[in-house]
Amino acid sequence: MNTIWIDELFKWADEFDVPELIFIDRSSTDENEDEYHEPSFWYGLPRDKHTLLSLEELNLSENKSPYIPEQLRHLTQLKRLFFSIDAFNIDATHYATHCPISHVPEWIGELTQLEELNLQGNTLEVIPDSLGKLHKLKKLNISRNNITNIDDNAPSILSLVNLEVLNISKCNLTCLPSSISGLGRLIELNVSENPLIDIDKHAHGIRGLIYLETFHMDLCELSTLPSAIGALHQLKSLSLFGNKIVNIDKLYDYTQNLTSLEDLNLGGNRIDELPDSIGPLHALKELCLEHNKLKKIDAIASWANDLKSIKTLNFCGNNITYLPGSFGQFEQLTTLYLSSNAIESIEEIIHWATQLPALQVLAINDNYIKCLPDSLGEMTQLSRMSLARNKLVTIAPIAQWTNELVNLTHLDISDTAITHIPDSLGGFNKLTSLLLSNNRIASIDNNYGWMIELSNLVELELNNTGITELPIEAGELQQLQRLSMQANNITSASLQSDWLSKFVNLTFLDLSNNLLDRLPESLGTLDSLKELRLECNEIENLEVQSERSSNFDGLEILDMASNKLECVPDSIDKFIALRVLYLCHNQIDKVSRNIATLPNLEFLSLRSNPMGRIPYYVTRISNLKSLWFDSLPGCDYGAMNLEILDINKVMKK
Hints:
This protein has a domain at 1-163: Leucine-rich repeat, LRR (right-handed beta-alpha superhelix), CATH 3.80.10. The protein is 6% helix and 13% strand.
């Protein structure tokens, strides 16, 4: 077998710094199932010939090559090919080096086993006719290219009769061809960010997509609801976010046959009034009307019979000034977003308590609410509540809720006008997250009873509260993982007591913008600490003084920017797990050679320091990927795996 092409392909990969095949793990140990996590994937080109010939998936996204190498035509077993930009966020620090391709070769049609092809974010203007030969193709992403007309520039797409997923968003399309109806097996279509102003002129093609389940038409400059949606009987998810729609009265007519619709997004439009009926959307679970022009939502009470399965209602970012007296009998509703409106009173909630028996999440932050009604405690299933950025001067009524809101785990009272935290707050003993930042509490030294009771607390934010220290009893919060006390008046001396060492599970600590003048000895006792933020203090020395400390040997991220450091000491080698180190905006003129021994350091910022030059051994750090510094003469750029970034140029971009 002729293998010259393999050697040529390996040479191409080396020339454009394409790595050996690696697995990029984006999985998370976070137990919050509702939080989205990016998928893991294989990336790069294997240098083993047998592995190469048996490849079924090849991801060469975000590389430096301006073309697709011809040698790939021999990989006839390929089922999935990715040659995209900004689809996987493989390494954001190298974004400036990504090179878009402007041409797809005709031989692409020889990869007849392909089931998925991703060419997102390039500068393609034409798709070759040979693409139509990929009869097994099920997923095609050509978004963020310059394909302005499918009939003229990409007619081969319309021959892909087995296509199930098509993303043609942000391609400057002004119309959709009627022949798109030929994609009879399409179940997901994304045409977002195209100026499809007159989409109804081409409604015939859309109506033919009878198996379509997901349809995205976000930011398409639409001024009316597309009439064609009424023919998409299998539709489960419809998004029309960020258009110019004012009136949705016809929604009732269009939704008569959308009996499978579960998610409807009409956010970011110009809707100023709700219709009396939204249509029999009995399967709908999520409805988003955020960032419109609504001033009242009284009509919502009459929607209860239409929205029998609704779980999430989002009215954030409107001009709603009051809450309706009745909210309708939404027995399945678990999440209600009313943030960023102009609501002054929530007394009407007393009428909702029995109408919303399943409500778990209530967000009414960023309004003008001055007081809390006693009736709020009647929503006994609440687990998350946000009251931040209102006009509250007291949270005294909270004392009456502790016996009712027994499931509350997240409470945000940040940025209000309260000055006192009642002991009754400790009654919420299931709280795992408590946010109290930007309140002028000033001191909690003599008012810490509530803190002792919150034994399940995992996250505590006390930013910009004016405190000078935490009481020793704070050490009882042994489940705490994240503690943020930035922008206060905390000194190094106030952190010297042993109570800090009791935070055995603490992984994140933010003490930035305080009055620290040295690294407190007690910080070194935090064996689980992964990220430490100390920027904008007055710390003069990075030396680790404590003999009994862990010497920060598990710390991965350290931010010491904007302090008074004059050098990077020899003891820097104690930070063996460090991956990210910010030392910018200090007075550093000397860096110890020991910095080169840090085996895991990937990012180092030394910009805005009075250094004459960057020492050569800094560029020899084995895994360093990004070094930020001011443009200086006499630098040695000889390090492998290192991209030197002139910060002055980067910031301009």
